[in-house]
Write a structure and sequence with these properties.
With 722 residues, the protein is an all-alpha fold. The protein is built from 40 helices and two strands. 75% of the residues lie in helices and 1% in strands.
Length: 722
């Protein structure tokens, strides 16, 4: 057998010719002989499919020294066109680049500039005469792109700009330019835009115009690839050229979706709309006519809802449709948020809102039906998390519809939240290198969400306020789970690791929502607070955390949530060891600082009188925290008779003195009745609980102020004590 194989290989005329050419190349005594031999080699290279061994033989014979001279020489051989040397060099380079071990060789990578120049030079005579040069250049780029680290080198080397230019000029091979661009942008979108913003901008303008203009199958191809070319948010809505692109995309999508489409045509259009919705909400809908814009939004959301129902109500849902259904979820989420808006003039008419709410409800009903069928083995399926996310968005706005179905699904949702949180915790507990391997081996890919809780927290804020779902949340152990979750989010929020601002912001919002759920439980289930140990654990966490959080600016709403929740629990756990610790005073000092710094005196520019106003940092967040401030003052007042050391702390802080001074300075009519009511309760508790506080109130004209502000109960209290 072996004796037959050798002559067989030798009998291959292409291999024999190549071997002879390589022999001539090695024995060449000057450039002319070497060039002649090289011409023969390139003929063989083009005529045969080379294996890696043969390719390396050519590489060893030619070497990069002579190849560099071919590519960068400014002269030409007598009687030959001047582009011939470079063409020859590119053919050899393309041969080398088909081997990954050669494609990322430093001597190949330093040829990226000449490859860029070749593909983007439309008008050069050599390209008109020799299109194979461009083909070879694209083959080189594709070879480099496929090699380890090749994409990084291409993006850093400016290839994105040259590819854009090739498409914009419709240079030879521009179709290849688009294919390579898609790969580069998919892999390194932000760096590509940072390095080649101007060229990518011009390309996106052209692509969006073509998408709007085309009326053939190209329109659907463009719809499929356009998401890759969208820049990082919020560039499109912040620039005039970006808004022009959005207008073209809107108009093009509207034209597409108004027609009867087959699946392969409808899917790319819905995915493009979903991609824009994920980045921009509804602000990308820049159709100038408001009625047209409303109709387009209704059409887009209605089609998405139909797609969801068709996919999920099938007895055997197809996993092949998960990608498009997830895209539709983004569109429905935008629809939910748009229906909840109260803007003037509204994008949607009332009739349109009612229609959308109905179709969205039906789609969410399909999502709940699907989740009821989910087997436990699918807990790590990212599609299930996408379903839960959409359901969370809907339930955050609407808990009255499909109430029975929601209640039936709650145990599953709680189990799902707990499972993902525990999986995430187990992963985080591993050493970093082990954790990274676990992530890559899981169904999540490189990202482990582990945070279905975050998506459902706003819904739980509503559900925990209602008797029936609250009973289920408690019986399924949600308060204990949220206590652990709150601790984890606090660790994320205060971590010194290099985390993104988005991650910290998400942690902050999650903690605020957790506080909302716990406040509902504290108000409606007061006996539970004394019975369950997790409330003591939570109070300890709040006591330790608030003094750390307060000095940091820009977190007033979280401060309001944590201080108010801590005070509400404290009034029910006043006798527990948690409130006997030294750190407790630090918590109450922080709470006093938050409550006492809210209002100041300010001169009215018209009358010159002093009016009570909010401090700027409070004013900016007052819409989100005003109820918490009032509830916090009430809870603080309730704590005064329960903690003997608390009234002296108020005196020491100067809060009581500054409050009385403020009321004496400002015009009484400038103080809201609600503020008067909570301050009256505070003064009364201070006066009853502590002699020194009572004396200070009286010394600063407490009786007169009570009379002026209509604090009849305080006036009577002071008179009785006196």
């Amino acid at each position: 057998m072996s004796t037959k194989s050798k002559p067989c290989k030798a009998a291959n005329p292409e291999n024999s010719a190549l071997e002879r050419c390589l022999g001539v190349l090695k024995s060449a005594k000057n450039d002319s002989e070497q060039f002649a031999a090289l011409l023969l080699v390139t003929k063989c290279v083009q005529a045969s499919n080379l294996d890696d061994e043969t390719r390396h033989k050519i590489f060893d014979s030619v070497g990069f020294s002579f190849l560099n001279r071919l590519l960068f020489s400014k002269s030409s051989l007598d009687g030959c066109p001047e582009y011939l040397l470079r063409s020859l060099g590119l053919t050899l380079l393309a041969c080398f680049c088909t081997d990954p071990s050669l494609a990322n060789h430093p001597q190949v990578l330093n040829k990226i500039p000449i490859l860029n120049e070749t593909i983007s030079a439309l008008s050069q005579q050599e390209i008109k005469n020799e299109s194979s040069m461009v083909e070879d250049a694209y083959q080189c780029l594709m070879g480099i792109m496929a090699a380890a680290g090749g994409i990084t080198h291409l993006v850093s080397g400016g290839t994105v700009s040259s590819l854009c230019q090739a498409y914009l000029n419709h240079s030879p091979g521009w179709e290849n330019a688009l294919k390579i661009l898609i790969n580069l942008l998919n892999s390194m979108p932000e760096k590509s835009w940072k390095k080649s913003r101007r060229e990518l901008q011009l390309l996106l303008i052209k692509l969006s115009e073509e998408f709007n203009k085309h009326e053939d199958s190209n329109k659907f191809y463009l719809a499929e690839i356009l998401p890759v070319f969208l820049p990082p948010t919020p560039i499109l809505t912040e620039t005039s050229w970006g808004k022009d692109c959005l207008k073209h995309l809107c108009a093009g999508l509207f034209k597409v979706l108004r027609n009867r489409l087959i699946v392969s045509q409808r899917d790319p259009a819905l995915k493009l709309g979903a991609c824009l919705s994920q980045g921009y909400g509804s602000s990308w809908l820049l159709i100038e006519n408001r009625d047209e814009r409303g109709r387009f939004l209704c059409l887009l959301i209605s089609l998405a809802c139909v797609e969801i129902r068709m996919a999920l109500e099938d007895p055997n849902p197809l996993s092949s449709r998960h990608v498009i259904v997830t895209a539709c979820y983004s569109l429905v989420e935008m629809g939910i948020q748009e229906c909840a808006k109260e803007e003037e003039p509204p994008m949607l008419k009332e009739k349109q809102k009612l229609h959308l709410l109905q179709v969205i409800q039906e789609a969410c009903g399909a999502v709940m039906y699907y989740l009821q069928q989910v087997v436990w083995e699918k807990h790590e399926d990212p599609f299930v998390l996408a379903c839960v996310r959409l359901l969370g968005v809907w339930l955050a706005e609407e808990t009255d519809c499909l109430k029975q179905e929601v209640i039936q699904l709650l145990p599953f949702l709680v189990h799902y939240m707990r499972t993902l949180f525990q999986l995430g915790a187990a992963c985080r507990a591993q050493p970093k290198e082990v954790s990274e391997v676990a992530l890559l081996c899981s169904n999540w890919g490189a990202v482990w969400p582990g945070d279905a809780i975050r998506f459902l927290l706003p819904a739980m804020c509503h559900l925990s306020a209602e008797e029936a779902p609250r009973r289920i949340l408690i019986s399924e152990g949600v308060p204990s789970l949220l206590c652990d979750y709150f601790r984890h989010q606090w660790e994320v929020f205060t971590s010194k690791d290099d985390m993104s601002p988005e991650t910290r912001s998400e942690a902050e919002l999650s903690m605020q929502s957790c506080c909302g759920v716990f406040l509902n439980l504290v108000v409606t289930e007061a006996t539970l607070v004394g019975q369950e140990s997790y409330f003591r654990t939570l109070l300890k966490l709040l006591v330790d955390s608030l003094p750390i959080l307060l000095p940091n600016e820009g977190h007033m709403t979280l401060v309001a949530n944590m201080s108010t929740l801590g005070l509400m629990i404290s009034r029910l756990l006043a006798n527990t060891p948690v409130l006997q610790e030294e750190k407790t005073k630090d918590f109450f000092e922080a709470a006093i600082q938050f409550l006492s710094h809210s209002h100041v005196a300010s001169s009215d520019p018209d009358t010159g009188k002093l009016h009570i106003v909010l401090r700027e940092e409070y004013s900016n967040a007052w819409a989100d925290m005003s109820e918490l401030w009032f509830l916090g003052v009430q809870a603080f007042s309730a704590c005064l008779p329960l903690l003997s050391w608390l009234p002296p702390l108020v005196l020491e802080s100067g809060w009581l003195h500054s409050l009385l001074s403020l009321l004496g300075q400002v015009s009484p009519e400038s103080v809201d009745l609600e503020v008067v009511t909570v301050l009256q309760a505070l003064f009364m508790e201070l006066a009853r609980s502590n002699v020194s506080c009572r004396e200070l109130i009286q010394q600063q004209g407490g009786l007169e102020k009570a009379n002026v502000y209509g604090m009849a109960a305080l006036e009577q209290c002071l008179s009785e004590i006196h």
